[in-house]
Amino acid sequence: MTVIGDEGLIQLRGDGAVLAQVASTNLTVTDAAWGDTVTLGQGDLAVIGGAGADALSLGQGSTGNSGEVLGDRGTLDYNANGKVVRLESVPSLSEDTTGGNDTLKLGSGTFRVILGAGTDALTGGDGTMTVIGDEGLIQLRGDGAVLAQVASTNLTVTDAAWADTVTLGQGDLAVIGGAGADALSLGQGSTGNSGEVLADRGTLDYNANGKLVRLESVPSLSEDTTGGHDTLKLGSGTFRVILGVGADQMTGADGAMTVVGDEGQITLRADGAVLEEVAGINLNASGAAGADAVVLGQGEHVAITGAGGDSLTAASGNFTLIADEGRIGFDADGVAIDIRTVDQAVLRGGDDTVVLGDGNGVVMGGEGADKITAGLGEHIVLGDAGVVLATTGRVLVSIATIDTHPGGNDVITLGHGRHWVAGSIGADQVVVGDGPAIVFGDGGKTTYDQAGLAVLAESTRNDVGGNDALIAGDGPGVLIGGNGDDAVDGGAGQDVVYGDGARITWLSGFLVKAEGLDVYQGGKDFIRGSAGNDLLVGGAGQDVLDGTLADDQMLGDYGGFTWRNGRYELDKVAVPTSPSDLISAVNESLYSLVVTPSAPKTQDTSSGAVTTGQSASGSETGAGGQGASSASSDVGSALSGNGLRAGQNDLGLSHQAPQAGENQDLKDLLQGQMAVNEASGSDGSGTSVASVAMQANPGHQAQAPEQPPQTVRRRPQQTPDETLAQAIHWAPLQTHEGDKPEGRMTYDQKVTIEWSVMNGPV
């Protein structure tokens, strides 16, 4: 059946056997419109409703239908064999005000539909459906067998927008909603769907075999203010979606979903089999962007939500997500290998919320104060802008932040698994579960070898950063606070923790060097190693280090550690103006062991003497602000007495009570965020401290022990808040089992802790 609802023409070929063209016309001065009702049964249908609010029911309740439908005016062109090769709507002479609010009901089959102007409602069955909600064109290949292009157009002076409703069943679906607040429900409640969706205006391009190779949104003539707040509901399957401008809402079931929240492009390989690039970039003049809400089921999902305060929630699966604008490049197998944010001077990212279930993925929050939560799995998370590069075969090359604009105060929470996280600029909060982790409070970069093993992790932009909180679960980790007053807890396991900037080097997966960066940039950091063999470095600023003498090596200021001779040895660089640090260990020891900057010292295990040019000690090492003077005489086998004293700004280590180098009261020594809470007894000049309160660790109080003498060996679960060290005695260093130094520390003749150096890589 071939039907025109209003005025028009039907042209056949010369022999009258097949159609050549079907077109509506309206040559009246008033450009009048009429509301027609058309009901057709099963078959091959060609219908132009024309102007007015038409009601069309075509092939309802039947299958095997096929046809072309124009809800308003337009043209259908046919090839020499009578196959449709082009459908195009024609705008009204009166600025398209007479399109009409059409109602269209289709049975199952293959249909190509342009609804045209007006607030239209379409309900279709299962099958292959190609639909444009407003004006546009549908171009097929010369033989009329497959699609070549589907594009929306709006040639009216007013650039009008209409809120259409489209509901389609299961099938292979291609839909352009057009301008206006459209409601699209595609394949709901069914599985095995596939399709392409542009919620606003845009273009779909197909290859010679009718396979989609490109989706692109097109900005409105009126600076894209008419995009509309669209609602999209998708069934299970494989969908590629560009939501366009507006505060859109999308719900997708299980499957493989590729989503661009605002304007952008989705490009596939030439054969249309796999993705080549996904880009989310706002091209309109106003830079308008909406707060989109996207909910996805289980599956393999790729999303760039675009500018604005967006939210994305997904069930378990694998994810590649940029919460603001960006680009994602894929290899020939469709694996994401180039993931990066894109800065736009006109735009601000917005405060995004991302909630992901269990699975693996890459997430970039972009600009704004973002909140990112993910379950179990392996995650790469950047709170702000950045770049992730990999090679074919899913082998990482590098991960780096891009700190070019002010970042937001991000909150990142990840479950158990293997993680790489950078909060970037801003006062960020990062919590990761059990498992290996590399965490930067501010900017950072990590490079990998050909086997995908980390070879270098270093902080970037050490001149900017916020007051971050980094907390890791059990497992080996590298945590770098960066600039600002940071609180860092490495959790149980072998950790390297820096309060300020740092560079970490591995060789074939083995950590060989940890060093601080930018000695003059740093804040008042609180650093806790928790249980395990840890390397803790405060860096510049007045820091608090909370470790375990049984396992940890601690350095109050700028410096690091190098793996030499089967152990991690201290590399210390003194800072002339470094303020005092507080280094505490299990049972609240207050000490600062420092070495001469120009020549580190070590314990000569044969004679007990301290010599220059070697390592200072094993896992008990702690170092504070300025360097101490060397022992005035051989300290002997006990390594005790007054031979080793603190520098000007450090807590002293001696046979007497903890004291400053110039015998100041501890009250004078603890400055900045540390304050004496209670004092009694005697120190080097008359006062010892029984309780020290630190604002960097609220509620932290230490009291002198009342228990009888005891020995504690490796008690990582014991909190460091139980007792204050009023006097510290060092037992001789021992060498056991292949040059693994061990030793003993006794607090005020009451509590003894035995320790040994870290063994093996972090």
List the helices and strands and how they pair.
Blueprint: E1 2-4, E2 8-12, E3 19-24, E4 37-40, E5 44-48, E6 55-58, E7 65-70, E8 74-78, E9 84-89, E10 103-106, E11 109-114, E12 121-123, E13 127-132, E14 136-140, E15 147-152, E16 165-168, E17 171-176, E18 183-186, E19 193-198, E20 202-206, E21 212-217, E22 231-234, E23 237-242, E24 249-252, E25 255-260, E26 264-268, E27 275-280, E28 293-296, E29 299-304, E30 311-314, E31 317-322, E32 326-330, E33 336-341, E34 353-356, E35 359-364, E36 371-374, E37 379-382, E38 386-391, E39 395-401, E40 411-414, E41 419-422, E42 429-432, E43 437-440, E44 444-448, E45 454-459, E46 469-472, E47 477-480, E48 487-489, E49 495-498, E50 502-507, E51 510-516, E52 526-528, E53 535-537, E54 544-546, E55 553-555, E56 559-564, E57 567-572, E58 582-584, E59 601-603, E60 610-612, E61 622-623, H1 666-669, E62 674-680, E63 688-694, E64 710-713, E65 728-730, E66 734-736, E67 740-747, E68 751-756
Parallel strand pairs: 1-5, 4-6, 5-7, 6-10, 7-11, 10-12, 11-13, 12-16, 13-17, 16-18, 17-19, 18-22, 19-23, 22-24, 23-25, 24-28, 25-29, 28-30, 29-31, 30-34, 31-35, 34-36, 35-37, 36-40, 37-41, 40-42, 41-43, 42-46, 43-47, 46-48, 47-49, 48-52, 49-53, 52-54, 53-55, 54-58, 55-61, 64-68
Antiparallel strand pairs: 2-3, 3-8, 8-9, 9-14, 14-15, 15-20, 20-21, 21-26, 26-27, 27-32, 32-33, 33-38, 38-39, 39-44, 44-45, 45-50, 50-51, 51-56, 56-57, 59-60, 62-63, 65-67, 66-67, 67-68
InterPro entries: Hemolysin-typ_Ca-bd_CS (IPR018511), Hemolysn_Ca-bd (IPR001343), RTX_toxin/Mannuronan_C5-epim (IPR050557), RTX_toxin_determinant-A (IPR003995)
Biased composition (Polar residues): 599-612
GO molecular function: calcium ion binding
